[in-house]
Design goal:
By secondary structure, the protein is an alpha+beta fold. The protein is built from three helices and 20 strands. A hairpin with a 5-residue loop joins strand 11 and strand 12. Helix 2 runs antiparallel to helix 3. It is elongated, with a radius of gyration of 48 Å. The chain starts with a helix and ends with a strand.
Length: 386
């Protein structure tokens, strides 16, 4: 009995010692170190890729499609031939304009000959009049005054014929210019039978086939059919509805990240233009982001998420968001004691928060649960994630 009582007493003393040791060991808490860093707050806007420019390629003149050299998906360069039209009556217009020019040139040659003849006649009549007038002056009565007057009259008529011939020549030369302009107009219209690409891009639609009748794209009274639709896809646009709260943060040249969920890739973009005014219906600002697409990876119509930075802080004291509790932070002193401080918070992101005052760079703060912590309590800090 005595041995059993002694054994039970020893066991009880050992248990009490263990309880006291456990009570004396400080509790472990998860901590993180306040550190200097850069913070930025972004908003995510969703938009759809659009070609940088897209146009229905029309014909300038009406005609039949003689040949079409592209199809859907064809990549073309600026100035590349897309289609050739056939306009039979235009050959007649060309022949008529050429003949009119040749006739005008012949008229110029004829008028030049007429002017030269008139000048020759004038030279003869002027010489005759000058001689008779000289004789009448030196030897009065030798030559009848009537002969002198007749010679003078012929000289004046010849002078008038020269003036008329010059006017006729000028009119003929003017007609040459008119005929030449008409010929150039016909040539220009004939050049429109070759439809070329206005810019480098890809054919996204084709509306006509060989033999199709195409109306002139300038005809306002008809529904002119385009030949193809051309889109420039090496550079794409994203049209973003930036909310009013973020408008002040948007500026030209701003770099943004463009994430395409279907490709699971991110592409660089740049704010290239914005409306600089808010839509009264949506309270958003029309903003366009240009995204280079040199490898043709992106396709118009794809959805993209644009990360637009609206606020940024550089070289500020930051702590994890889980360390901030209603404007207070639990700081662990070098003596491993808990100190509760009120802090002034600034910019907050998903994981970090800026602390403007209350703690310094390098100080330890408690992260996570603080339910059992009291000011002045001794704890065993353990870096989160270690």
């Amino acid at each position: 009995m005595r041995r059993s009582a002694l054994l039970l007493a020893m066991i009880g003393l050992a248990s009490c010692a263990k309880v006291e040791d456990a009570a004396a060991e400080p509790p472990a808490v998860s901590v993180s170190k306040a550190a200097l860093g850069d913070l930025s707050r972004d908003i995510i806007l969703t938009a759809e890729f659009k070609p940088f420019q897209s146009v229905d390629v029309m014909a300038k003149v009406a005609g039949y499609v003689k040949s079409i050299d592209v199809d859907v998906g064809s990549r073309v360069q600026a100035g590349q031939l897309i289609a050739t039209l056939e306009i039979p009556e235009m050959a007649d217009d060309m022949a008529r304009a050429t003949a009119a020019l040749e006739r005008s040139q012949s008229e110029v040659a004829r008028e030049k000959d007429e002017l030269q003849r008139a000048q020759s006649v004038r030279d003869m009549t002027n010489l005759s009049y000058t001689r008779l007038a000289g004789v009448a002056k030196e030897r009065p009565g030798l030559v009848a005054q009537q002969e002198v007057d007749d010679a003078q009259s012929k000289d004046l008529v010849a002078a008038a014929q020269i003036a008329a011939a010059k006017s006729a020549l000028a009119a003929a030369e003017q007609q040459v210019r008119v005929s030449n302009a008409e010929l150039e107009r016909v040539k220009t219209m004939f050049n429109y039978t070759k439809v070329t690409a206005p810019f480098a891009g890809v054919v996204t639609k084709r509306f006509a086939d060989t033999g199709s009748m195409i109306q002139a794209g300038t005809a306002s009274t008809t529904q002119a059919m385009p030949l193809v639709q051309l889109a420039e896809n090496t550079l794409l646009r994203l049209v973003l509805p930036v909310p009013e709260s973020a408008v002040a943060s948007v500026h030209l040249g701003q770099q943004v990240e463009v994430r395409v969920p279907t490709l699971k890739r991110t592409f660089p973009g740049r704010v290239s233009r914005f409306a600089d005014t808010l839509s009264l219906e949506t309270r958003t600002m029309h903003t366009e982001v240009d995204v280079p697409n040199p490898d043709w990876v992106l396709i118009p119509g794809m959805y993209a998420e644009v990360s637009l930075g609206v606020d940024r802080r550089e070289n500020v004291v930051t702590i994890p968001v889980t360390a901030l509790h209603d404007g207070r932070v639990y700081v662990i002193t070098p003596q491993n004691r808990v100190e509760i401080r009120k802090v002034e918070a600034g910019l907050q992101t998903a994981n970090k928060v800026e602390i403007r005052s209350g703690i310094k760079d390098g100080e330890m703060v408690v992260v996570g649960s603080i339910s059992d912590l009291q000011a002045g309590a001794v704890v065993h800090p353990k870096l989160a994630g270690s």
